[in-house]
Fold this protein.
Amino acid sequence: MDIRQLKLLVEVVRHNGFSAAAEAVFASQPTVSKAIRQLEDELGEVLLERSRHGVRLTPAGQIVHRRALALLGEGEDMLRELQELRGLQRGELHLGLASLGSDVLFAPVFAHFRQLHPQIELHVLERGSEALEESLRAGEIELAASLLPVADDLQWQPVRIEPLVALLPRNHRLAERAGLQLDDLADVPFVLFEKGFMLNRRIVQACLTRGFSPREVARSAQPDFIVALVAAGIGVALLPHMIAHARQRTDVAIVPLHEPELDWKMVLAWRRGGYLSSAAQAWLRLVAEQQADNAGS
């Protein structure tokens, strides 16, 4: 058993298949399959159940996958500690940022960080919050933008809290309402987010607790496209207030959603007990300063 085999197992699970995992690591599909088969042979356990719908971890696979994430994370921590011998004069910072809201929240921090620490290379991984948390556990990134609540194995620092608003076509019967609740949208088609977005799961769960399943008509990971779909009359979308108002259109109505438990609570998370480099700590300080400036303005 070696680190490479464990990394490939993590990639196969993340991408729900051997072909997609092979493409992600720039290897051939037979190479990935052989590595997983060798790992299973060495451990004497079947780790993955294969089907036409993808892969699923067996009970043994769940144990190995959890341990693999921890080992990979520890390995990255070791490399970062060695890198710290150079301080903030050289090095890298790997960040996980969601496509939803990062342009408003983190682009100014990105620019400020580069001015202060021009020798630190910033690498950004863009995914949904759920996928970013997995990358965080594997040590691929040091910090990840995520939504509360986060898992117990993660620590976090607050970034922003925003209420959700409903986006509706301007001519929709609900477009002139002063405010809405989820119950008002029970018979309206929903434009939802792609798989891996934690907000997506929270919206669906909230609808289910109110006795209805949202009728999905489209999915996207791009806020601009989601707003365009609403404008085209496809359905309703729920977005954080600041993201919606940054994309105002005359053909889209923005109506407050009175559902405080669905507030968008953005944080920066890292592995509990994991090593945070000086670069990561500097990033957290800049984000905290920006949050304080925004609160005071």
Summary: The longest strand covers residues 154-162.
